[in-house]
Amino acid sequence: MEKSLLLSVLGQNFNKHKERVCELLKIYDLTILGRQLMDQEQKDICNRVLSENAFFAENECSRGEVKICKGDRITDETFDFLMSEEDFQKYQDLQTPYLVAQNICDEKGYFVTNWYTKELEAMNELSDFIIDSLLPDCFAKQFSKVRHSIVYKEKLIDITRKAFTA
Fold it and tell me: Residue ranges per domain, the chain?
């Protein structure tokens, strides 16, 4: 397909589907925000449990400038993997009431709203719509890899976002 013809087809498809793409971009952005808020709330809860309870490292670990030695008190959730299995289970059990109170999970530990799944579903819907509705048919096979790669989907969404906000 000639470059000028390709740009013409893309321009027509962008104009035709602009409202739907903008709607799907907003939904995707909201699911990202929901996941980020849930992640931060979980991190805060983990660190609260660590500040209120003493858990100790069973192994050594270095990350950047931080070094945790065997027997050190764990004060940051990024090092919770250094706990014994028994302590880790207790640590998780202590988090559950806080997670339930924040409506992140139920009493059994299941997510009330799984933002990871919602984000992936929104990403799939948006990237599929872009491929099926915006790109000329002659690119369908070339872009089939995008459907199976989160990295390519993110790139496609970023390019589309730039095109729609330019």
Answer: 14-165
